[in-house]
Amino acid sequence: APAPALALPTAQPSPEPLAPFRVAIVIDDLGANLLAAQRLLAFKQDLTFSILPHQKHSADVAQLIHAERREILLHLSMEPLGYLAVSPGRGVLLASMTAERIQQTIDGDLASVPFAVGANNHTGSRLTAHAGQMQTVMRHLQQRQLFFIDSRTTDETVAYAVARQIGVKSAQRKVFLDVKPGVDFARRQLAQLASLAEQGQPAIAIGHPKEDTLRALEEMLPEFERRGIRIVRVSEFLE
Question: Which stretches of 11-168 are assigned E, i.e. beta strand?
Answer without folding.
Answer: 21-30, 48-51, 71-78, 118-123, 147-150
